[in-house]
Amino acid sequence: MNAVKGFFLDEWYFALPLVVMSLVAGALVIWRVLLNKTASTDLDDFLPVFQQALRKNGVKGAVALCKEEPGLIPSKLFVAGLEAADQGAAAMRRSVAAETELVVLPRLHFLLAPILALAKIATMVGLFFTVISMINTFDAIGQQTKAGNVKGVAGGADKIGLALFATALGLFTAIPLVFSHVLFKDWIARFEVKAKAATGKLVTLVTNYKKDPKLLDKVDDLDADEEDDRPAKAKGARRG
Question: Is residue 163 classed exposed, middle or buried when 0-12, 13-18 and 19+ CB atoms within 10 A define those classes?
Answer without folding.
Answer: buried
